[in-house]
């Protein structure tokens, strides 16, 4: 957050610097099952963000002492490639990535049925290949799809996005310039039913502005959910029209 | 919010994702589903289907979870005291105890009888609440695999590879000139001459890929017929 | 997360094939898998390359920033090469700083770039003794399906060849393409069953206990080599590998690097 001395205007004719309306998401592209070695994977582009998520698991926990007897543990590791940001970043986690990893894990863990897999771990790895504000939300979106791709039982897909305040306006999905110079940033994640699993806020907002930002972010999440779901469903539509397994089995008997 | 997906999709696809609404009747909750606020939803990324008065979801992806009675193909990873530790393509390893062999072996003969890296066909004897998996090889139909090849497919496709009442697997055994054994854990053993094994494995991979489609058995029979013609 | 012991039945099969002159995926011993190369995919980086070698996938990013030269080479630019074998790329990779495998990968990729003279270091000098261009080559492995070395090297040189020195944002003149004077290409082979197998996949790498990487330049000279793994290599096998490496590298250079 930088002071407002700049003469930079973020709106022109009601549109933002990149031509979006205040309530518009950046273009999204999602691909599922992009990696060979991982059990589940997803590549996502949200605006200029390029993020890839992979899931390994459930699998054996190493080191053993971390395992829990009655359920799977969930681990989430958010990492940024050195070349993903403007100034080359030293490889390895920093304090920010530890925090992002923690809140992201806590955004997804509530929907994962960990009791199905005692003494195991579900490992979620997110690599940011190019960053433009909103990488943690992109990571969570990709991780949700990767978890489904891996066949992890869940109550629902988690969708995530942020709202911010720029030049006095509440906007959806701030890009980097807006985030750097804006007055507030509110990333959230939620279930399709509207239950919030990630909520962070920094900046300064009146209570009414916060409510509006949250409502706007929720709308964004719903839109993202549609894309996540569509990608997963469409994946099995390219081959002969599938019918229920029951019909297929009945056919066998005939 | 996002409701009403997965149910009654007249666009024929009933691929569902976790959270998709399947039924308003909590009593209809079958495998792969859960109930919340009186509604039945999918737990899995899979195919939803109705069977009698229940709706269930069959997974399209996921790891193998051992269940007693399953026959599984494993690879010996380690020998610890009186147990062989066997990788069974699962988050859980299998323990094959020295007493579960067809004949009596002394502890110091373990490595000679069955060494690290060996492949075995075993049955899951017991799985306890902490997912400790006990295997047995004490059955004529089980044993050490010394020849042939082992392929791995997603365990979620094994039911389709076997088919209702064994229809698919029996057809394959007849048409392919190979010994075939399908482990519940997604590992399949084939044995025959090189070309026949190549064809068998190729066929198995097609079945894995198209498991969720209809008319598969016929298409596979057609495929095998044309492959055999091409050969002769 | 440790390597799973490979089934002997699988090892036997691979050896059996090799004796027949075949490989599991039907390739010839000296044949490479399909290569796809896309450059400029990470616009925020100064150069980037997304390499697919069969199912192996590596992303290389190049960042060029001004910095201080090393004390013993005050008039030369600096190349810093790093490789991240991130856990998403393989069940065998653990989080944490690079281990010996990752470090070896980075150092061999670096060797190819440095020893070939591909980058003219004195030309990267801005103010002698004070400021030079630092070229960061960051290899980010995304999917390890065998032969990370060749994929990473290819990515590195491709990213460098399409990189731009961002002089403008530092007030050091106009942006200009990074001058690259040679095109080092790495070719790797493993040895097992008395055969030499190029571009090994995951299983072939597991079975073999010896690997040799040969890096050649555009004129067919050798500028880097690395034998890795605990096995033996006979001299005549080494010469054969070098000969084939030169041919394969030339083909890759011509097809993908427009040389």
From TrEMBL, chain B:
GO CC, any one term: cytoplasm
Compartments, record wording: Cytoplasm
GO molecular function: poly(A) binding
Signal peptide range in chain numbering: none
InterPro entries: Exosome_RNA_bind1/RRP40/RRP4, KH_dom, KH_dom_type_1, KH_dom_type_1_sf, NA-bd_OB-fold, Rrp4, RRP4_N, S1_domain
Keywords: Cytoplasm, Exosome, RNA-binding
Domain annotation S1 motif: ranges: 69-138
Chief location bin: cytoplasm
Any one Gene Ontology BP term: exonucleolytic trimming to generate mature 3'-end of 5.8S rRNA from tricistronic rRNA transcript (SSU-rRNA, 5.8S rRNA, LSU-rRNA)
Pfam families per the UniProt record, alphabetical: ECR1_N_2, KH_6, S1
HAMAP family in UniProt: Exosome_Rrp4
Entry function: Non-catalytic component of the exosome, which is a complex involved in RNA degradation. Increases the RNA binding and the efficiency of RNA degradation. Confers strong poly(A) specificity to the exosome.
Subunit structure: Component of the archaeal exosome complex. Forms a trimer of Rrp4 and/or Csl4 subunits. The trimer associates with an hexameric ring-like arrangement composed of 3 Rrp41-Rrp42 heterodimers.
Membership in a protein family: Belongs to the RRP4 family.
Protein name: Exosome complex component Rrp4
Protein species of origin: Methanothrix harundinacea (strain 6Ac)
Automatic annotation (TrEMBL), chain C:
Residue ranges annotated for the Exoribonuclease phosphorolytic domain, each copy included: 31-166, 182-247
Database matches in SUPFAM superfamilies: Ribonuclease PH domain 2-like (SSF55666), Ribosomal protein S5 domain 2-like (SSF54211)
Compartment annotation: Cytoplasm
GO cellular component: cytoplasmic exosome (RNase complex)
Pfam families xref list: RNase_PH, RNase_PH_C
Primary localisation category: cytoplasm
Recorded GO MF terms: exonuclease activity; mRNA 3'-UTR AU-rich region binding
Keyword Hydrolase: yes
Family, per entry: Belongs to the RNase PH family. Rrp42 subfamily.
Protein's job: Non-catalytic component of the exosome, which is a complex involved in RNA degradation. Contributes to the structuring of the Rrp41 active site.
NCBIfam families, A to Z: PRK04282.1-1
Protein name: Exosome complex component Rrp42
Organism of derivation: Methanothrix harundinacea (strain 6Ac)
């Amino acid at each position: 957050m930088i002071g407002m001395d700049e003469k930079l205007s973020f709106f022109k004719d009601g549109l933002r610097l990149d031509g979006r309306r205040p309530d518009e998401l950046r273009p999204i592209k999602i691909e599922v099952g992009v990696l060979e070695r991982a059990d589940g994977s997803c590549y996502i582009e949200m605006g200029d963000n390029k993020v890839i998520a992979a899931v390994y698991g459930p699998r054996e926990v190493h080191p053993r002492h971390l395992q829990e007897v009655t359920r799977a543990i969930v681990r989430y590791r958010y990492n940024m490639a050195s070349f993903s940001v403007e100034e080359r970043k030293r490889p390895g986690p920093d304090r920010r990535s530890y925090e992002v990893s923690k809140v992201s894990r806590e955004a997804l863990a509530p929907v994962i049925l960990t009791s199905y897999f005692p003494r195991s771990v579900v490992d979620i790895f997110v690599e940011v290949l190019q960053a433009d504000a909103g990488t943690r939300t992109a990571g969570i979106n990709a991780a949700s799809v990767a978890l489904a791709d891996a066949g992890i039982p869940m109550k629902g897909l988690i969708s995530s996005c942020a709202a911010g305040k720029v030049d006095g306006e509440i906007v959806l999905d701030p890009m980097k310039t807006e985030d750097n110079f804006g007055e507030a940033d509110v990333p959230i994640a939620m279930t399709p039913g509207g239950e919030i699993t990630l909520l962070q806020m920094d900046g300064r907002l009146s209570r009414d502005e916060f409510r509006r930002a949250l409502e706007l972010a929720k709308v964004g999440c719903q839109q993202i959910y549609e894309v996540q779901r569509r990608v997963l469903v469409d994946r099995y539509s390219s081959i002969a029209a599938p019918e229920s397994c029951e019909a297929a089995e009945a056919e066998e008997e005939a | 919010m996002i409701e009403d997906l997965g149910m009654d999709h007249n666009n024929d696809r009933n691929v569902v994702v976790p959270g998709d609404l399947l039924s308003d009747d909590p009593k209809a909750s079958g495998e792969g589903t859960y109930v919340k606020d009186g509604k039945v939803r999918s737990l899995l990324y899979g195919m939803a289907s109705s069977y009698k008065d229940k709706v269930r979801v069959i997974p399209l992806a996921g790891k193998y979870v051992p269940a007693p009675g399953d026959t599984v193909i494993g690879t010996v990873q380690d020998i610890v005291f009186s147990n062989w530790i066997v990788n069974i393509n699962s988050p859980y390893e299998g323990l094959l105890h020295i007493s579960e062999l067809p004949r009596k072996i002394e502890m110091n003969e373990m490595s000679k009888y069955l060494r690290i890296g060996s492949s075995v066909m075993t049955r899951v004897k017991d799985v306890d609440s902490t997912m400790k998996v006990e295997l047995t090889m004490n059955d004529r139909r089980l044993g050490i695999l010394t020849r042939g090849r082992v392929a791995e497919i997603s365990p979620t496709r094994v039911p389709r590879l076997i088919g209702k009442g064994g229809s698919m697997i029996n057809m394959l055994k007849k048409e392919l000139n190979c010994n075939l054994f399908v482990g519940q854990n997604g590992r399949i053993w084939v044995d025959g001459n090189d070309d026949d094994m190549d064809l068998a494995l190729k066929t198995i991979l097609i079945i894995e890929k198209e498991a969720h489609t209809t008319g598969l058995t016929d298409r596979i029979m057609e495929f095998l017929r044309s492959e055999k013609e091409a050969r002769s | 997360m440790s390597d799973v012991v490979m089934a002997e039945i699988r090892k036997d099969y691979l050896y059996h094939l090799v004796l027949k002159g075949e490989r599991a995926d039907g390739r010839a011993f000296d044949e490479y898998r399909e290569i796809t190369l896309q450059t400029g995919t990470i616009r925020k980086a100064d150069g980037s390359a997304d390499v697919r070698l069969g199912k192996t996938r590596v992303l290389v990013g190049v960042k060029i920033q001004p910095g201080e030269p090393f004390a013993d080479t005050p008039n030369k630019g600096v190349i810093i090469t790093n490789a991240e074998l991130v856990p998403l790329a393989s069940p065998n990779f653990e989080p944490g700083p690079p281990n010996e495998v990752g470090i070896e990968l980075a150092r061999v990729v670096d060797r190819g770039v440095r020893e070939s003279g591909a980058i003219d270091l004195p030309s990267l000098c801005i103010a002698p003794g004070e400021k030079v261009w630092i070229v960061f080559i960051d290899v980010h492995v995304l999917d390890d399906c065998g032969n990370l070395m060749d994929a990473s090297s290819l990515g590195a040189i491709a990213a460098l060849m399409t990189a731009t020195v961002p002089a403008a944002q530092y007030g050091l003149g106009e942006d200009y393409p990074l001058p690259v004077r040679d095109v080092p290409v790495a070719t790797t082979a493993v040895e097992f069953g008395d055969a030499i197998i190029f571009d090994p996949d995951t299983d072939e790498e597991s079975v073999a206990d010896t690997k040799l990487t040969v890096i050649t330049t555009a004129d067919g000279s050798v500028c880097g080599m690395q034998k890795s793994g605990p096995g033996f290599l006979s001299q005549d096998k080494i010469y054969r590998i070098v000969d084939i490496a030169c041919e394969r590298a030339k083909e890759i250079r011509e097809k993908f690097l427009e040389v």
